[in-house]
TrEMBL record:
Residues 269-488 form the Histidine kinase domain. It is an enzyme of class 2 (transferase). Its EC number is 2.7.13.3. This is histidine kinase. It comes from Bowmanella denitrificans.
Length: 488
């Protein structure tokens, strides 16, 4: 049988409540009985001794058993809660005031009698009940002596059979039953209140359990699942934390789905880009292999150059794919050091000076002389500058300018690569760092471009704990910028 937490708590509460009620009832009954017996026995402990001392039949040692029986009968009429017995020194019952058929014992154990006579402070002491073969009751006892000779014992049962009968009737009376009924109702009401309190306490936990089950089933929380973030209830705090966690998990899951879709699109695009140079390379090589004897040296040399160009484009594309994969996989190590930024900028510009002259584009470094020391990975920074300059020259027409500008900050140096090219539309700026994205106004040249340069540069700058930013306006040019740590 599967029980909920509330049901288990409620069942446990009922069982514990019943057990505590029984223990309390047993303990209170035992305590009440013991204190009643002790009080009764202390109150009448000397009664037997007074009767022996004041009664002529017992004081003079004259054992008129018929007279004693009449005396006992008279005393029982005056005190119906007492039973009187006269015992010999061995504990045998010699006379009593009762109907013979009611006496179930012929003798009484003397050990409790001697204990009470010698140590009266040890009450309550229970002795044998002559009317019950297995019963024991409190009593008062005294030794009967004549001329210092022990003649027997006066044995008085306190709370005899008549007392028990009357007490049982009173206990079973309507008044006591009414009191017991009200006490039971009060306890039942208390139990219901406690069960309601348990229900109130465990209700948020039940809500949280249902929310977890719903999230496990469909990855979504119930629409009405609102938790009080300012509550001091730990379950509400746990519910808020769980809701935040599920929101983050859903967001990450959606990002993973988008990333997976982007990877699929990137793979399809790259497959197409790889197919083009491979097909060209294969075609020209087959032409050389099949028509080698019929080709002139000029044609053969032109086919070889075209094949080499396609092979270089293919290698370049594969290198970029591997580089982006390593960056996304976090498999890149940094070798950062302090170096003069100006020297690196002039080295990079020198690589593109011939290409810039051929296109009629002017390359500038502003300021022309600088002694800024920065802390970065030279190879990674050179790769970023190379990508940015390559893009700038590709999209800048003849007569344009590409400026590399350095701006000194408080503890950093900002590097800007600005061109006067075609620019990028405002609605496309947010996507230019995505792999394989190409702006609608991209300029084509004779080289193959995979569209991975800016994506690689963005990730490289993130590794260098910087951010690659862009500003652009259609028809006026584009400016990429990033910050580097300055070394003093």
């Amino acid at each position: 049988m599967n029980l909920s937490l509330y049901q288990r708590l409620a069942l446990s509460l009922v069982l514990v409540f019943v057990l505590m009620l029984w223990v309390f009832y047993w303990w209170s009954s035992e305590l009440h009985q013991r204190t009643t017996l002790e009080a009764e026995q202390r109150l009448h402990i000397d009664l037997a001794a007074h009767l022996v001392h004041d009664n002529p039949l017992l004081a003079q040692g004259v054992y008129d058993y018929q007279g004693l029986e009449n005396l006992f009968h008279t005393l029982m009429v005056l005190g119906p809660s007492f039973e009187f017995y006269y015992l010999d020194p061995q504990g045998r019952i010699l006379t009593y005031s009762a109907e013979p058929q009611k006496i179930r014992r012929q003798s009484v154990n003397l050990a409790p009698i001697l204990q009470l006579i010698e140590h009266p402070d040890t009450v309550p002491v229970l002795g044998d009940d002559p009317r019950n073969p297995n019963g024991r009751k409190i009593f008062s006892a005294a030794a009967v002596k004549h001329a210092d000779q022990l003649q027997g014992y006066l044995y008085m049962i306190i709370g005899g059979e008549a007392y028990d009968s009357v007490f049982a009737k009173v206990r079973d009376s309507h008044g006591l039953q009414t009191i017991a009924l009200w006490a039971s109702l009060a306890l039942a009401f208390l139990l219901v209140v406690l069960l309601g309190l348990f229900r109130f306490i465990t209700r948020p936990l039940l809500r949280l359990t249902r929310s977890m089950q719903a999230f496990r089933s469909n990855q979504r929380l119930p629409a009405a699942d609102n938790w009080c973030a300012t509550s001091h209830n730990e379950v509400h705090q746990l519910g808020c934390a769980f809701k935040q966690m599920t929101t983050q998990i859903n967001s990450q899951f959606e990002q993973l789905q988008q990333l997976d879709q982007q990877r699929r699109t990137l793979l399809a695009d790259l497959s197409h880009d790889l197919r083009t140079p491979l097909a060209n390379l294969q075609g020209y090589i087959e032409t050389l292999a099949l028509n080698d004897q019929h080709l002139s040296s000029e044609e053969r040399r032109r086919f070889v150059e075209i094949s080499l160009k396609n092979a270089r484009n293919l290698k370049r594309l594969i290198d970029q794919i591997f580089e982006l994969a390593y960056l996304e996989g976090g498999q890149v190590t940094l070798n950062q050091e302090a170096f003069p930024l100006g020297e690196l900028l002039y080295d990079v510009v020198a690589k593109f000076s011939l290409k810039a002259n051929d296109k009629g584009v002017k390359l500038e470094i502003v300021p022309g002389q600088c002694q800024y020391q920065v802390f970065a990975d030279i190879a990674k920074l050179e790769r970023v500058l190379t990508n940015l300059l390559e893009n700038a020259l590709r999209h800048t027409p003849k007569g344009g300018r590409v400026i590399i500008r350095m701006l000194l900050g408080k503890d950093s140096v900002r590097v800007e690569v600005e061109d006067t090219g075609v620019g990028i539309g405002r609605n496309e700026l947010a996507y230019i760092f995505d792999a394989r994205y190409r702006a609608s106004n991209s300029r084509e040249d004779k080289s193959l471009h995979a569209g991975l340069g800016l994506a690689i540069s963005k990730k490289l700058m993130a590794l260098l704990e910087s951010d690659l930013r862009v500003k652009s306006e259609l028809g006026k040019g584009t400016c990429f910028s990033f910050d580097l740590k300055q070394v003093f």
